Prior knowledge:
The chain is of the alpha/beta class. It folds into two domains: 2-105 and 234-265, 3-Layer(aba) Sandwich (D-Maltodextrin-Binding Protein, domain 2), CATH 3.40.190; 106-224, Periplasmic binding protein-like II (D-Maltodextrin-Binding Protein, domain 2, 3-Layer(aba) Sandwich). The chain is built from ten helices and eleven strands. The protein has helices at residues 2-23, 36-49, 62-71, 85-93, 123-131, 157-165, 182-190, 220-224, 244-254, 259-265, and strands spanning 25-31, 53-60, 76-79, 98-112, 120-121, 148-152, 177-179, 195-200, 209-210, 212-213, 231-239. The strands form two sheets. Strands 1, 2, 3, 4, 6, 7, 8, 9 and 11 form a nine-stranded mixed beta sheet that branches. The chain has a two-stranded parallel sheet with strand order 5-10. Helix 6 links the parallel strand 6 (148-152) and strand 7 (177-179). The longest helix is centred in the first third of the chain and has 22 residues, at 2-23.
Amino acid sequence: MKLNLLKVITVLISVLCLSTGAWAENLEIKGSTTVLPIAQKAAEAFMKVYPDINVSVSGGGSGNGIKAIIDGTTDIADTSRFIKGKEVALAVEKGVYPVPFGIAYDCIVPVLHPSNPINNLTINQLKAIYEGKIKNWKQVGGPDLQIVVISRDTSSGTYEVWESLIMNKARVYPGALLQASNGAVAQAVSKNKYAIGYVGLSYLNKELKAIKVDGVEATMENALSKAYPVSRVLYMFTKGWPSGVTLQFINFMMHPAKGQKIVAEAGYIPLY
Length: 272
């Protein structure tokens, strides 16, 4: 009798375990590599609070994140720029109404190899470098070295903000080396004493030299006051007004002591 009871209890426990796995919910997050460090840290913390929810996070760029929200292949799209008019039109055409949530502030920071003595460049100088009109560091007060221009690919939200605020819609010259992520830009610049690139705040490290733009340093105060000329809002977009686990995650992200604390830990500027 006791043996049979033990078998019944074992079967019940197995069924409960299987049921718990079956009931586990999934949340997919895709998009910007700038927002990626925030999303990864937030996902880890969120799953500790809600162990029955599986959160999957991947990069790919802001454009790909928006595309995924329109196609329905993600629950949340991370972007480092606002949605474009043509993306809105495509979404509405497919019956999708993306909703933006600003989750952090950021600065796009020009970076050089630490051996480069340059400490400041103007917007006009940066534009001329990226257009290929200034080709040697001595033209801006630096050493007699050819400039290696490193930029982001066109699916990047960081590239699009840079294009708007620095390039004023002018095209980056064809000789620039294009990278698919902030991390790739940081690595390329850190290994090349001739190079210039640009990255989000959280990708700054001791192997890079962050420089001022128009004499203004990229800091929290200068970003919030808009004194720093290349600052921006980072977003998470949802497919329509969020509900269920998507709403849970967005609420977690906006909470001052939860998601916003993680924003600061990831090296970005919280909303509060």
